[in-house]
Amino acid sequence: xxxxxxxxxxxxxxxxxxxxxxxxxxxxxxxxxxxxxxxxxxxxxxxxxxxxxxxxxxxxxxxxxxxxxxxxxxxxxxxxxxxxxxxxxxxxxxxxxxxxxxxxxxxxxxxxxxxxxxxxxxxxxxxxxxxxxxxxxxxxxxxxxxxxxxxxxxxxxxxxxxxxxxxxxxxxxxxxxxxxxxxxxxxxxxxxxxxxxxxxxxxxxxxxxxxxxxxxxxxxxxxxxxxxxxxxxxxxxxxxxxxxxxxxxxxxxxxxxxxxxxxxxxxxxxxxxxxxxxxxxxxxxxxxxxxxxxxxxxxxxxxxxxxxxxxxxxxxxxxxxxxxxxxxxxxxxxxxxxxxxxxxxxxxxxxxxxxxxxxxxxxxxxxxxxx
Length: 371
Known about the structure:
Elements: H1 27-45, E1 59-64, E2 69-74, E3 79-85, E4 105-115, E5 118-129, E6 134-143, E7 146-151, E8 157-162, E9 167-172, E10 178-183, E11 192-193, E12 199-204, E13 209-214, E14 219-225, E15 232-237, E16 243-248, E17 253-258, E18 264-269, E19 274-279, E20 285-290, E21 295-300, E22 307-312, E23 317-322, E24 328-333, E25 338-343, E26 348-354, E27 359-365
């Protein structure tokens, strides 16, 4: 379908709410929600339409958090190649997890099972072939939720936070075996590796702590406490390895720490329920996404970490990916079943693209799928 610029950074009559409570009385939000319904209908009923005659990629793989599907977008033409079944549902998946080994994308899948008459969330580590759009390996690791699968720099192990069991699981990628289940604090939430692969960082949400794990010894070498009840949700190590950015779910803060000492360097108040952040390829900005807000917050990536702009994209911006040449950011917008394309020169939304049903997880790969 054609590129329709349905939103930009000057939307009016918006509200910092999720799609459940967003004010749809205003004409722009009515149009946005009608548009999102149309996008979802087209990508489900006509999964192969539109199709680019000339296509060069790279390709956005946009995963549904509810329908076990992936929607593929050619970023060269901004056209949807199709929506296809995957056999798994995933919430959190992003380029900065470094979970692509050159052939397979390592992530996780969510499924419910009946245990004692009650539904229980189970988590599988998934090895997904993005070319053939199929699951190659599926490894059960425990009780959910989960938030991140990351690969060690040698690509020999996958590491996942298994929040329901309070563990970090280590998987041998060749054999598919769980080789260690490391007990940590309450509700380990997210996982981010230092650029050299020496350390892993993760929030322990239900005890309001951040932990630093030595991946050579599998020992927690540093743990700090945050404000009681702040519930740190996710964290990311900066590309230069110098800082750790963490978002707190209840206090609506983006907190920046020294990655070595975990000394607090800076705090910014951001939007409602911040979830994660991602750095632009040039290292100039960091984008902060929110679960219960309509905005992406743009913050200077270097001291003094000044707020730059708030970009309205729609309810629940999930994760961000970036074109390798640094021209555009792509942000999944769960509340509109869409992907916002943001011009990084103007920090304006250029257009909205179909993103499938309830998209959150998203990666950019230089692999054209067989679709």
